[in-house]
Amino acid sequence: TLAIFLGFRNTVAYQRFWEARTLWGELLIVSRNLTRQSLSLLAGLSREHRRDLAEGLIVFSRALKNDLRADPQSPEIQAWIDKGHEHPGTPKSGLPNAVLGELGKRYMAATQLVQTSPVVQADIDQQLSRLSSVLGGCERISNTPIPYPYILMLHRIVHIYCFLLPFCLVDTIGWFTPFAVCVLAYTFFGLDALGDQIADPFDKQPNDLPLEAMCRTLEISVLELLDEPAPAPL
């Protein structure tokens, strides 16, 4: 019964982990799509204008990473939002959402500048909507943890079970009891600890998602498409 409960909790935790990984993979795909579209569909844009749009995608990934990990936001993120505004204001709905809103305005302004067709505008807006879905999905995972009483109950049951296990086995296997108890306790404590780590995939524990490396991968992909110098991968 204990193994069933642990397996269920770890399955739910891994589903959260894999959904988070899928969302960040979607972020990378959409960023590449938007950069490619700025080259092919918005051919009249200047190099500086394309670079500004690409920086917005990089800034969005960093703002999202900092927001999910409750890290302090970099001043460069707010500086990109305030660029070109006479009266910049502090966003009230979260910095990633503010970056996404500003990114949408600049992409639509770029499409109007080069006078693209409504079909191209709709396609770019669809890519931006996918970024909004990524943001909402990550916020859902981050703001909806596995219920704490369920985790607490499993912690207590694992400890009680492993404490009582030697008394249940000693009459059956005798001197092999310490070895058997160590193996079983290692298994149950290991599964319990692993479930704790991957239940919050955006944390900084060893088995969580490497968000810093993912942001760097996105930055490299976007800059290489623009033939700009890119940093080394993490």
Structural write-up:
The protein has 234 residues and is mainly alpha-helical. The chain has helices at residues 2-40, 47-68, 75-82, 95-113, 118-143, 148-173, 177-199, 211-225. It is elongated and about 85 Å long. The mean pLDDT is 88.
Topology:
Blueprint: H1 2-40, H2 47-68, H3 75-82, H4 95-113, H5 118-143, H6 148-173, H7 177-199, H8 211-225
- N/C terminus separation: 42 Å
What ranges have pLDDT less than 50 throughout 5 or more consecutive residues?
none
Mean pLDDT: 88
Run of helices and strands? HHHHHHHH
Main beta-sheet annotation: none
If you compute it from the alpha carbons, what radius of gyration comes out, rounded to the nearest whole angstrom? 24 Å
Strand content: under 5%
Helical run tally: 8
Helix content: over 70%
What is the general shape?
Answer: elongated
Looking at this protein, list some descriptive labels.
mainly alpha, elongated
